[in-house]
Design a protein that fits this description.
347 residues; binds nicotinamide-adenine-dinucleotide; globular; alpha/beta; five-stranded parallel sheet
Length: 347
């Protein structure tokens, strides 16, 4: 267990949605449960956002946009940098909660989250140093290009790397002067909801970042169908991406999708076999194999195949499976029973 933080600190809490700088209940007071994938016990109850809550969040973001777009790049950089610094201070707490809700080993989550403050630093630096262009055009004309924010942007995230995926969407969106409505995964929304406190403490104006937890079919659909949304950025399964891209196409809403995928890893006979086996096991088994870049196919040169497979099997057998919050655990549970049933069909 982490020295300072343990799962008891989060157990039994009720997490609200974050709209206009305040933690508020759902309009109809609905709640849903978030479960510990390790033993299916309830971690916390979460406000269940629906169409009315999405509407409130979008209205709050629209109001905030009128002011946020006028904030200078230097001021935006300062706020974003402060958010990053506060995020960094909260790493231990967030890593425990991330591990608890995703079932991913605490050692993985500590390593993954420790890199995220870099995104805040990077975009603060981009804001301070970015150049725009004056373009030669013709006698009597002065042509220049300038990047403008889009407006209210929807950020929809999956459960497998909740804060990682969110950070790489959120920070550039804010840096560019957009306001956001975030719809985290219903399976793991808790760390995302905690970011509201960080945003307030960093001085992010109210309404610039709104978080509406809830289910894809309800909150997600309401968000993606709303014509006030200037852009949708979604990471999730391929089928989800197709549905959302269809809606975006129909409304001519800009969209970025990062969807399901698997990777091939190639091994040649000039490799150091032990290092290569470590890399192969990491690629295949991180997050219990539930990632979009999982090294699902290993292509090994025939001359070293036997040695490689022999060492690979030994290494896989040595993986320590157990409680995600035990620092010795190398692999935790799958996220849900549904996911386990899907996996069983692969064997
Ligand atoms: P998911 O598709 O079930 O859900 C992703 C998000 O979309 C959730 O917030 C969900 O509530 C929402 N959603 C679902 N249906 C929706 C709808 N009809 N309208 C609007 N929103 C909807 O995916 P998941 O199980 O949370 O995540 C795992 C998937 O994400 C895997 O397929 C994985 O490969 C993929 N992934 C991709 C990347 C990448 O960068 N390409 C990164 C991480 C995960």
């Amino acid at each position: 267990m982490s020295k300072q933080f343990s799962k008891d600190m989060f157990q039994g809490k009720t997490y609200k949605m974050f709209i206009d700088g305040e933690y508020v209940p759902a309009e109809d007071n609905a709640l849903f449960s978030v479960e510990d994938p390790f033993d299916s016990s309830e971690i916390a109850k979460v406000a269940e956002g629906k169409k009315a809550d999405i509407d409130l969040a979008i209205r709050s973001a629209e109001r905030a946009f009128n002011e946020w777009k006028k904030v200078t790049k230097a001021e935006r950089a300062e706020i974003i940098e402060k958010m990053g610094a506060l995020f960094e201070k909260s790493l231990d707490r967030l890593a425990v909660l991330e591990s608890y809700q995703t079932g991913r080993p605490i050692r993985e989550m500590k390593a993954q989250l420790s890199r995220l403050p870099e995104w805040f630093k990077y975009y603060a630096a981009v804001l301070r140093t970015m150049e725009e262009h004056v373009r030669p055009f013709g006698e009597g004309y002065h042509a220049f290009s300038s990047r403008m924010p889009l407006g209210v942007v929807a950020l929809i995230t999956p459960w497998n790397h909740p804060l990682l995926i969110l950070t790489k969407k959120l920070v550039p969106a804010l840096a560019a002067g957009n306001c956001v409505v975030i719809k985290p995964s219903e399976l793991a929304p808790l760390t995302t909801i905690e970011l509201g406190e960080i945003a307030n403490a960093a001085g992010l104006p109210k309404g610039v970042m709104n978080i509406v937890p809830g289910f894809g079919k309800e909150a997600g659909v309401a968000l993606t169908k709303d014509k006030r949304i200037a852009k949708i950025d979604v990471t999730g399964g391929t089928e989800t991406g197709k549905v959302i891209a269809g809606i975006a196409g129909n409304n001519l809403t800009k969209i970025s999708c990062e969807l399901g995928g698997k990777a091939s890893v190639l091994f040649f006979d000039d490799m150091d076999v032990d290092r290569a086996v470590n890399a192969a096991v990491f690629a295949a088994y991180i997050a219990a194999g539930q990632t979009c870049v999982q090294g699902a196919r290993l292509l090994v040169q025939q001359s070293v195949y036997a040695e490689f497979i022999d060492k690979l099997v030994q290494k896989v057998k040595s993986i320590k499976i157990g409680n995600p919050l035990d620092p010795n655990t190398q692999m935790g549970p799958l996220i849900s029973e549904n996911q386990r049933n899907i996996m069983k069909r692969y064997t």
